[in-house]
Automatic annotation (TrEMBL):
Coiled coil: none annotated. It is an enzyme of class 1 (oxidoreductase). Pfam families: Flavodoxin_1, NAD_binding_1. Signal peptide: none annotated. Residues 217-380 form the FAD-binding FR-type domain. This is NADPH--hemoprotein reductase.
Length: 519
């Protein structure tokens, strides 16, 4: 196989010979041929999509599709619209709705429904869909007239609750007598190969020639301009303050999320190149890059088949997953700030995202970043009081919110923050104290768990301040919770329910007065 691996070293003639050699290896030839066909099809489809434009004709005799989505950050929503376009291009009538807008009548009148739903928290519905789950999904309905399919979005980072909300929708429809078109499909982190299965299953069930759909992710280029350790001598893992700058105007709002394309360390790439005996400077013709550059964001842990050229190698290597971080600053500060704690697996290797940002990327290096609008965590625009609750790196999302409040001169702000030790882990102490001194923070409660014998966390502080909390809520306060779902956010949720009652907490959620950015 070695000459095949090395095919591209020796120029086109040798590559041609390598290709002929490949013909002698049936399996290799077949995969190459299929990749070629797939590319050709994609090109044709793109062209067709461009030409289809407004000239879409809907078949008046076709049965309409109801497409419903439950989405937090917009991926399910985007897929719902893509699915709709795809069906419309095959002349099918469609209606797209968020699940919170679905009524009992919608379900009774529809003959076929596609549900695209993501999972949040620990197996929960997206915030806006929780009412749908509690009300409509709790109603017993006869849906025996209805055909359905479910696309469940989730992340395998949550193995125990992977796509569980989608599966609950499936179970509910089944129990209501609806007929499944095909088994529920799962999408891991917006993976396009998973989405392709949805496309295929839908095409098969409808016998339609459907347009391929995929999720587009377009990243902007930022540079790392500062990286400092926030917690020297901490009992916890190192947490960093990262500052990034873009070379052009950028906009985001307090509460938004930065999605980062993760990458490989130079050492990791060199090991991979050595293993397959490829020279780092080998050109990738289609990309005008060296192979070393092209591998920066590829998953180098997958099994690789013999390859005839660099394109063929790259085709086999999926892009590494992205990671999300709450943005800790507002645009007027001129930097995009992130707070990232190093994660380690049991083998002591740094996590994909945290290793990339806190160790592999060097100062001034490029970072591929995409700002994700996350409306459910945006700041209210009026001067109602806000209560910001979080611990650890959860301070990030709260910092951006308070910065924005200070800028608007709204002072009814209550911060409840927790970490391990005041001496080592009081993130952004100077800024927070300056806010206190200028009366921009009306209240502050700090929970440093290791500064006394018994562990004190933010939910304890909240319980201590139950009366104050009730007062703030009576004064229309909006509650923001940012940080870890395991522990903090769950404990805070329980404390809020104990203090305010389950109905009030549910009402706050529905009214957009209980907002969470939890991970
Ligand atoms: C805070 C948070 C919690 C999540 N919890 C889960 C979970 O419990 N199970 C799961 O399968 N996916 C979970 N995910 C992954 C999302 O479901 C996944 O990113 C999905 O593609 C998002 O789709 P959306 O943009 O339509 O909301 C979680 C993601 C975040 C940010
Ligand atoms: C955050 O609070 C939870 C308890 O609610 C605790 O388990 C966790 O260790 C805390 N994290 C930090 C960094 O203080
Ligand atoms: C719940 C919510 O408001 N989600 C929004 C997050 O951001 C995307 C856009 O990126 C919107 O489409 C979602 O509606």
């Amino acid at each position: 196989m070695l000459p095949v691996h090395r095919g591209s070293f020796f120029g086109p003639v040798f590559q041609f010979i390598a290709m002929l050699a490949a013909l002698a290896m049936p399996l290799f030839f077949v995969t190459g041929w299929m990749l070629y066909l797939k590319r050709r099809k994609q090109k044709r489809l793109t062209l067709a999509a461009k030409q289809a434009g407004s000239a879409i004709q809907i078949d008046p005799n076709a049965t309409p599709w109801l497409i419903a989505y439950a989405s937090q950050t917009g991926m399910s929503e985007q897929l719902a619209w893509r699915t709709s376009t795809s069906l419309q291009e095959a002349h099918q009538p469609t209606t797209v709705k968020a699940v919170q807008q679905l009524s009992e009548d919608d379900l009774k009148q529809a003959k076929q429904i596609l549900l695209i739903a993501s999972t949040y928290g620990t197996g929960e519905a997206p915030d806006l869909a929780s009412h749908f789950e509690k009300k409509l999904m709790a109603t017993s309905l006869d849906l025996s007239h209805l055909k359905y399919a479910v696309l469940a979005l989730g992340s395998q980072d949550y193995p125990e609750t992977y796509c569980s909300f989608g599966h609950r929708i499936d179970a509910w429809l089944k129990q209501s007598g609806a007929q499944q078109l095909f088994a529920t499909l799962e999408v891991n982190n917006g993976n396009n190969a998973d989405i392709q299965h949805w496309n295929d299953a839908l095409a098969k069930a409808t016998k339609l020639d459907l347009q391929t759909m995929s999720i587009d992710k377009v990243f902007d280029q930022w540079r790392l301009t500062k990286r400092e350790l926030l917690n020297p001598n901490s009992l916890g893992a190192p947490a960093f303050n990262l500052e990034l700058q873009a070379s052009y105007d950028t906009a985001w709002q307090a509460g938004d999320i930065a999605e980062i394309q993760t990458g490989n360390s130079p050492e990791r790439i060199q090991l991979f190149l050595d293993k397959y005996q490829v020279h780092a400077e080998t050109k990738v013709d289609s990309l005008e890059q060296s192979i070393q550059e092209a591998l920066w964001n590829r998953d180098l842990t997958v099994a690789v088949e013999p390859f005839a050229n660099m394109e063929h190698l790259l085709e086999q290597l999926p892009t590494l997953p992205t990671r999300e971080y709450s943005i800790a600053s507002i645009p007027s500060q001129q930097v995009l700030r992130l707070v990232v704690r190093q994660q380690q697996n049991p083998q002591g290797e740094l996590g994909l995202g945290s290793g990339w940002l806190t160790e592999h990327v060097q100062l001034r290096d490029k970072i591929a970043l995409r700002i994700r609008n996350n409306e459910s965590f945006h700041l209210i625009t009026d001067n109602r009081p806000i209560i910001c609750i979080g611990n650890g790196t959860g301070i990030a999302g709260l910092m951006s919110l308070i910065h924005a409040r200070v800028r608007m001169d709204y002072t009814e702000n209550w911060l409840i923050f927790g970490e391990r030790q005041q001496a080592n882990d009081y993130f952004f102490k100077d800024t927070i104290q300056a806010w206190q001194n200028t009366a921009m923070l009306k209240r502050i409660d700090l929970a440093f768990s290791r500064d006394q014998a018994e562990k004190i966390y933010v939910h304890h502080k909240l319980r201590d301040q139950a009366e104050e909390l009730k007062k703030w809520v009576a004064n229309d306060a909006v509650i923001y919770v940012c940080g870890s779902i395991n522990g903090m956010a769950t404990d805070v949720d329980l404390a809020l329910i104990d203090i305010l009652g389950e109905d009030t907490v549910e009402q706050l959620r529905l009214d957009g007065r209980y907002r969470r950015d939890v991970y």
